[in-house]
Automatic annotation (TrEMBL):
One of its GO terms (cellular component) is cytoplasm. This is BPL/LPL catalytic domain-containing protein. Residues 1-182 form the BPL/LPL catalytic domain. It holds the Pfam family BPL_LplA_LipB. It comes from Ornatilinea apprima. GO terms for molecular function: biotin--[biotin carboxyl-carrier protein] ligase activity. SUPFAM superfamilies: Class II aaRS and biotin synthetases. Gene3D superfamilies: 2.30.30.100, Bira Bifunctional Protein, Domain 2. Signal peptide: none annotated.
Length: 246
């Protein structure tokens, strides 16, 4: 099922290893997995801490088909959906997707996704999808917690969680949903598991820009849709969603 994989006990970032491998011919579906990352990276240039033994950190390499090229931004949604589904089905957790692809349980983050692309002649040659899941509680404070409260699978499920079993379930969901990436079933699932639907949110974007609005959903291309106080529709392609308090 998985044509090829690389395992590292300790590495800078599994996404960096995957980008290098992608540039030197890694096959579609290739997997890089790391027990510990010393330079783990998050979205918008943030740091991501991977505690050995407590986290699941891996990167997948996809070679998009000509058809998938049309919905290339959906690979990011695919990762969020796959983790959401794995947590819902395997652990019975009420997991939700915080746009574009963080996974929350009970309002706290337990998974982040970093998607990066390898371009060649104006076309995406490979997509690297990096997934980090907090599996077991850790005593190391996560810097990303300052931005959003964090949790882990074992705390939420109230039982031990096997990292490899979770990895297998996530890979299974990715393989299954990738076939439906451009179809309405995928779009409906992504929409239905979106956190903060109908609520007033604040979206912070690079360059300290902040947009306020009521969260309406996503477009089929993965854009976030807000409605401004004046009733205008706003579509966003990047940012961090927070509930607007007060
Ligand atoms: C985020 O929430 O900002 C995204 C975090 C993504 C973390 C994963 S862990 C595996 C892969 N390697 C990295 O350096 N980052 C991603």
């Amino acid at each position: 099922e998985i044509p090829s994989f690389q395992f590292f006990e300790k590495i800078g970032s599994s996404n960096d290893a995957a980008l290098t491998w992608a540039a030197s011919g890694a096959p579609d579906g290739a997997l890089v997995i790391a027990d510990e990352q010393t330079q783990g990276r998050g979205r918008m240039n943030r740091q991501w801490v991977t505690v050995p033994g407590a986290a699941l950190a891996f990167s997948l390499i996809f070679r998009p088909s000509p058809q998938e090229q049309e919905g290339i931004s959906l690979f990011s949604a695919l990762a969020g959906v796959a983790v959401q589904q794995a947590l819902e089905k395997t652990f019975g957790l009420p997991a939700e997707i915080k746009w574009p692809n963080d996974v929350l349980v009970n309002g706290k983050k337990l998974c982040g996704v970093l998607v990066e692309s390898v371009w060649m002649e104006a076309r995406v040659e490979a997509v690297v999808v990096g997934i980090g899941v907090n599996v077991a509680p850790s005593s190391v404070p996560a810097p990303e917690m300052l931005l959003f409260p964090a949790t882990c699978v074992e705390t939420e499920a109230d039982r031990p969680a096997d990292r490899l079993l979770l990895l297998r379930e996530i890979l299974r969901e990715i393989t299954a949903w990738r076939k439906h990436l451009l179809s309405s079933v995928f779009y409906q699932l992504y929409s239905s598991r979106l956190a903060f639907q109908g609520q007033w949110v604040k979206v912070s974007q690079p360059g300290d820009q902040i947009t306020y609005g009521r969260l309406k959903g996503v477009r089929t291309n993965g854009c976030l849709l807000l409605e401004s106080e004046a009733g205008d529709e706003i579509a966003l392609t990047i940012g961090d969603v927070h509930l607007r308090l007060g």
